[in-house]
Amino acid sequence: MKTLTVSLSEHQVEQLQGAVQSGLYASNSEVVRDALRLWEQRQELRKLELARLKRAYEEGLASGEGRSVDADTLLAELKAEARSRG
Question: Which SUPFAM superfamilies match (predicted)?
Fold first, then answer.
């Protein structure tokens, strides 16, 4: 493993040391590795969400020309659709 130097705020240091002292983690390094794993998971979820949004955007563009509608008309159409579904 490679050793890195990282600067942390006082609050972060207290949180890290508390996690180790409580026995939840065996070492400071273990806490940081776990935090990095969670960060990697969050980054992957962001990529998946962005891909989903891009697909939805492309599907919207491919669905045809848009139309102008006022709020009352849209609400009435949505209510009619909901009634037809039961």
Answer: Ribbon-helix-helix
